[in-house]
Design goal:
This protein has 74 residues and is of the alpha+beta class. Helix content is 45%, strand content 28%. The protein has a single domain, classed as Arc Repressor Mutant, subunit A, CATH 1.10.10.
């Protein structure tokens, strides 16, 4: 896996990064989730999810309201 999914929306082609997929999965869950739950819900590779979590934490795009669970920052 290369970490980018190409989605064809009509005539427009967009690239969705693993980070964006992780954030969308977290938003769809509607509750704080672990990396394992993101893996189950999204079907993404766990190593890619862990890498995305690390980057999202550094960017402060996700927060941890409870131990080992994450949600998008508000």
């Amino acid at each position: 896996m290369f970490g980018i999914v190409v989605v064809n929306v009509g005539m427009e082609v967009t690239q969705v990064s693993v980070k964006e997929q992780v954030l969308e999965t977290m938003k769809a869950a509607g509750k704080p989730v672990s990396a394992g739950e993101v893996e189950q819900l999204s079907g993404l590779d766990r190593k890619e999810i862990d890498k995305a979590f690390k980057e999202l934490k550094q960017e402060e795009a996700i927060t941890s309201p409870i131990r080992c669970k994450w949600e998008p920052a508000k």
